[in-house]
Amino acid sequence: MMKNKHFRISLLLKIWSAIMAVVIAVLLLIWGLQVVFLEQYYVGMKKSEFSAVCDQIAEEINRFGYIGSQNGILDLVAKNRLCVQIIQRSGQIIKVEGMPYDCYIHKRNSGVGQELVRRAMAGEITGPLDVWDQAAKTEYLIFCTQKYSTYDEDPYVLLVNQTLAPVREAATVTSNQLAYLSIILVVLATIAAFLIARFISKPIRTLSNAAQDVARGNLDVSVPVKNNDEIGDLCENFNRMTTELSKVNRLQRELVANLSHDLRTPLTMIRGYAEMIKDITGDNKEKREEQLDIIVDETNRLNRLASDALDLSRMQAGQVMMNKTVFDGAKKLHDILSRYQLLSETEGFTFVCNTPDSCFVYADEMRIEQVIYNLLNNAVNHIGEPKVITASLVVQNGIAYISVKDTGKGIRPEDLPLIWDRYYKPYRKTDRPGMGTGLGLSIVKAILNGHNAPFGVDTALGKGSTFWFGLTVYDETKPLPNEEHTAQKEEGANGSANAGKN
Hints:
Blueprint (H helix, E strand, L loop, with lengths): L10 H58 L1 H11 L1 E7 L4 E6 L5 H5 L1 H12 L6 E6 L4 E12 L4 E10 L3 H49 L14 H50 L5 H32 L4 E3 L1 E4 H10 L2 H7 L2 E5 L5 E4 L1 H17 L6 E9 L2 E7 L34 H11 L4 E6 L3 E9 L12 E3 L15
Parallel strand pairs: 8-10
Antiparallel strand pairs: 1-2, 1-5, 3-4, 4-5, 6-14, 7-9, 10-11, 11-13, 12-13
């Protein structure tokens, strides 16, 4: 049975949908403000202004009477385009001011005015009314309320009429305009979505094609960086990734080649001496013991190589713990150097040790021993003339700095950033035969990072190199940390249970 494929939504559709959502939201807001709320807002505002003007007219009458208020009423009528009637309770019209030709009551239906006056005298009307004249397609505001004049000591009805602007027609025109505007915005949004999607998707398609090349095993692919934005950062990171993958792939191939060579040599020797013992020297005890010792040494060498590879994997997985204790770092350095006495006797090496009488440090003794062994083996492998290796311990500001100095050729500037990398193994003709697999310094880095210890190298071409690291000096006046074990923290760090060779 075939599996259902997930529905694929293109980038163009997603961008178009997002832009259209914004356009629709803006259009709905404009439609709501300009069409739905325009009339209500305008009528409400005019009613408020209209009521205020009518109150001013009543105030004029209250202060100056029917006759004395004429000038003030005329001024308000002219400013606001009003038609004003003052009607006594008997129904007699005292005064008409304004524009009766544009008055709904005078021009359209005089009976409406009589009804309004009646309702006002009965107290049924207390505020402005809006009236729509269907025949004239015009809207009016009418104020009809009973008042009392303290000046004339007489109740009266104030009937005021004002024509509203054709807001309904304006709303209709606005609706038509918004309809055209909506169509234009939809077309522009579609064009913008297409252009934006094309601008964004083009480098993404390039990245996708490059990723497919990487999946097929082509690690030399790179993508051009044309954007100074997140997509440009993505392209740069992709190129950096392929560069690192290429480097790791190359280093792994070199590791396989080095391991193959290093494994083949002891295996060949083991096989050769075993055959010699079987066929030739089996009855000669002295020769047999000598050749068996060689077989044992080569077997130990194979075991060290396997242990290095195993601990490398463990440290990469973050499974190595640092078991910190207090020990004498100066004595440890002396003890390790004494084990190189055979090289002094057989190959002319000179080992110099500069340390105080004692210096207690707080660290993982076994792991620090590995670090010192790896640094000494590294110096032995890259030694020059004279064959002098100097190991020192100096205390500064509560830190015991241990260093190993050789008289080799130094490290090339292009090699310096890579010497701590896994598998890295620069080759020179002056290097000592039988060098290791390139794990030594990466093991040193992993162990020292597990101690949060400073480390580094000082080197100059033709003058040798000095590898150094620092350990915390034990102070009996201060308590030790509560943690008995310190976890290895360096991401991708490498290590070895035995002294490796670099």
